[in-house]
Design goal:
alpha+beta, 8-stranded antiparallel sheet, 23% helix, single chain, 3 helices
């Protein structure tokens, strides 16, 4: 009789243990990492579309197209797995003015294991500008647009967990959702 009770208890414990272990295998992690590190290296890609010199008036003309290139390193700094959404924004301004505008943006989802990192290369749309100057230096004219800066946000769900920007003004824009929405609205 005692042997029967022990075997019943052993069987019951085995069923409970196997059910718990099976549940553990299928259970999703309770929490995702919110600790992310962003490192950005910036460079510029350019191409000259046209260049000429007017020998009669001694003027040089140059038309250029430039795009910004960013190499972004994203590192999960937590012992938990991370599922981040990366958003990037490129800002420009007229060559002869100071009114900033948003000229390119994008988004990418990234999944990282604990402590892992990845590198992503981002390239903006091109902005064109023209320059004319006299040989003797008494006349100088610029037109078109040029890149002014960039900003990157890492989000977990809808929560912003990290911001990295080329200058503090763009960091402030990324922190203020209404101001960011105003730039996005002007872009369209």
């Amino acid at each position: 009789m005692i042997g029967l009770k022990i075997s019943l208890w052993a069987g019951l414990l085995a069923m409970i243990w196997s059910g718990w272990a099976r549940g553990q295998e299928t259970a999703a992690p309770a929490e995702l990492s919110k600790s992310v590190y962003l490192d950005v290296k910036s460079s510029t890609s350019s191409s000259t579309l046209a260049a000429s010199r007017d020998s009669f008036s001694s003027y040089y003309y140059k038309k250029q197209a430039k795009s910004s290139v960013l190499e972004v390193s994203v590192r999960n700094m937590s012992p938990l797995p991370g599922k981040f959404s990366l958003e990037w924004y490129f800002f420009g301004r007229p060559t002869s003015g100071s009114k900033r505008f948003l000229f390119d943006r994008g988004q990418k989802d990234i999944e990282l294991k604990p402590g892992a990192f990845t590198k992503i290369e981002l390239e903006s749309d091109e902005l064109t500008s023209s320059r004319a100057r006299s040989y003797y230096g008494y006349y100088h004219y610029r037109s078109g647009d040029k890149a002014d800066g960039w900003a990157i946000r890492a989000l977990v769900g809808k929560e912003v967990v990290r911001i990295k920007a080329s200058n503090p003004n763009y960091e402030r824009i990324m922190e203020d959702e209404s101001e960011l929405a105003r730039y996005i609205e002007k872009e369209q």
